[in-house]
């Protein structure tokens, strides 16, 4: 079970927990241990249904004086087999049975080696239980399971890493998440014989440092101190920069860490967020995306985009129907839903398969077609497009020239584009206008790009896109309790031989 989508950080660990037994197929009257060995062989060969049947027979064959190790292994591996075929309800039941068996019978064992082995299996059962619960959207239950795994085995870095992901991504407890990530990192780098240490730890260490950096930057008002001297205050930004730098050193292909390092160091050379970064961001965010965006961040840009679009035409009744509409960076369909009634055929495009799956779950059949891919490629592949809508998806581009070039190429003559962008806050805008009068875009601490209106209009003009409606957006979402400023643009592609004034 490997679900390393790092807002979940679910790590692979050893699935098989075997008791060594020699089995002779000619034997009559198999014991529980015989069935366990046969079932483990089946599970190793991905014969999951056969393994399930054998594990169940093994459980049925248990005797009153059966070894606790055999009981734990049968229940744990049966749960893993159920998880492998997607039956998480039964997986949860049998992981819980393994843990209950451990709690009920462990006091009867006096041999220290057997106690340690039983603890190890029960800890892994609890870890696996946490993984299934986390994937099922039960963060608080997953938290308890991961916590118990650590109690049983303090060297289980995977449980601590997953504990951190639940705290950070799903429960918003960034301080405790930071502590969990740091402990997981410490186990892998400083502790002798960590449980199930990866053969090549660089990828895991990179992800842990990346997420440590995220915790440190989550709250701009946060105060930090060194573990060696808690009384001495240090810059959280410096500590986060160090964490993101370490993440890139461990894994130079970690695009998310590269992006956040550029963000925190205000790297002016970054022209757009990489597709890998955006894909990972929204794969991680998919299940909680809409609740977080609308309920927690107060996002209403999708509604404002539709209302602004109507005003561009003089009212809702004057908005025509468009033959081919592309919802660029469609997410879960919040924007597409607003424009469905003026679309004959609507395509939803996103870099994240997980977010498109969530869109289909929340809004079945909203899109006539869903495409996983880069919007600049799709614009060209699906031309001629009559309307492009993009709410908060162009904010991952700094340099708009390649994007607008693709829009120009993909849009039919006279076609429309309606989109939102972020702006810097009012104080920063004044400062930038005075200190850098030619500024075009700014990579913000959120990892998104903010754009200057004049720059957007300049690029649009270069690509034969005329502005027909503009609105400022104040508070269309919130960031750390503060209103985010933005722009709303409605543009039309020039028809050959017609000037902008005639559009």
From TrEMBL:
Q: Where is the Methyltransferase domain?
A: 325-405
For whether the record's keyword set contains Chloroplast, the answer is no
Q: Does the keyword Iron apply?
A: no
Keywords for the protein's UniProt record, in alphabetical order: Repeat, Signal, TPR repeat
Instruction: Write down the superkingdom of origin.
Output: Eukaryota
TPR repeat ranges?
123-156
Q: Which Pfam families match?
A: Methyltransf_25, TPR_16, TPR_8
- InterPro entries attached to this UniProt entry: Methyltransf_25, TPR_rpt, Ycf3/AcsC/BcsC/TPR_MFPF
Signal sequence region: 1-25
PANTHER family per the record? CELLULOSE SYNTHASE OPERON PROTEIN C, TPR REPEAT-CONTAINING PROTEIN MJ0263
Q: What is this protein called?
A: Tetratricopeptide repeat protein
* Native species: Nitzschia inconspicua
Q: What is the lineage of its organism?
A: Eukaryota, Sar, Stramenopiles, Ochrophyta, Bacillariophyta
């Amino acid at each position: 079970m490997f679900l390393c989508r790092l807002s979940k950080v679910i790590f692979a660990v050893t699935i098989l927990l075997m008791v060594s037994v020699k089995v002779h197929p000619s034997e009559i009257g198999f014991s529980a241990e015989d069935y366990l060995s046969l079932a483990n062989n089946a599970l190793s060969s991905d014969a999951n249904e056969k393994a399930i049947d054998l594990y169940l027979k093994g459980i049925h064959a248990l005797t009153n004086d059966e070894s606790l190790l055999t009981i734990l292994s049968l229940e744990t591996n049966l749960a893993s087999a159920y998880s492998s075929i997607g039956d998480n309800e039964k997986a949860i039941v049998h992981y819980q049975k393994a843990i209950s068996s451990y709690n009920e019978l462990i006091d009867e064992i006096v041999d220290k080696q057997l106690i340690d082995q039983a603890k190890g299996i029960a800890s892994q059962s609890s870890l696996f239980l946490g993984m299934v619960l986390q994937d099922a959207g039960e963060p608080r239950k997953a938290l308890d399971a991961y916590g118990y795994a650590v109690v049983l085995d303090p060297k289980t870095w995977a449980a601590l890493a997953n504990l951190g992901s639940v705290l950070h991504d799903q429960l918003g407890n960034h301080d405790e998440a930071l502590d969990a990530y740091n402990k997981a990192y410490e186990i892998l780098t400083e502790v002798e014989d960590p449980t199930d240490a990866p053969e090549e730890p660089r990828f895991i260490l990179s992800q842990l440092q990346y997420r440590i950096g995220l915790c440190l930057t989550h709250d701009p008002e946060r105060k930090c101190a060194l573990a060696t001297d808690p009384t001495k205050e240090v810059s959280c930004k410096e500590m986060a920069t160090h964490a993101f730098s370490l993440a890139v050193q461990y894994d130079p292909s970690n695009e998310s860490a590269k992006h956040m390092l550029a963000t925190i160091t205000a790297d002016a050379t970054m022209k757009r967020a990489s597709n890998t970064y955006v894909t990972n961001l929204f794969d991680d965010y998919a299940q909680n995306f809409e609740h977080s965006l609308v309920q927690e961040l107060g996002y209403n840009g999708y509604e404002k985009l539709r209302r602004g679009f109507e005003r561009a035409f003089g009212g809702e009744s004057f908005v025509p129907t468009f033959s081919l509409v592309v919802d660029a960076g469609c997410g879960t369909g919040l924007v597409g839903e607003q424009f469905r009634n003026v679309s004959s055929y609507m395509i939803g495009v996103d870099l994240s398969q997980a977010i498109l799956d969530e869109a289909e779950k929340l809004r079945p059949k909203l899109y006539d077609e869903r495409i996983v891919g880069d919007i600049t490629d799709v614009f060209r592949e699906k031309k001629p497009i009559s309307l492009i809508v993009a709410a908060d998806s162009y904010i991952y581009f700094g340099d708009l020239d390649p994007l607008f070039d693709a829009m120009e190429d993909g849009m039919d003559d006279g076609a429309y584009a309606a989109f939102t962008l972020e702006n810097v806050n009012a104080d920063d805008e004044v400062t930038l206008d005075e200190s850098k009068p030619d500024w075009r875009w700014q990579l913000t601490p959120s990892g998104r790009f903010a754009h200057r209106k004049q720059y957007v209009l300049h690029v649009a003009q270069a690509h034969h896109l005329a502005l027909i409606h503009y609105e400022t957006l104040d508070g269309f979402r919130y960031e750390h309790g503060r209103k985010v400023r933005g722009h709303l643009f409605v543009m039309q592609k020039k028809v050959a031989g017609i000037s902008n004034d005639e559009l």
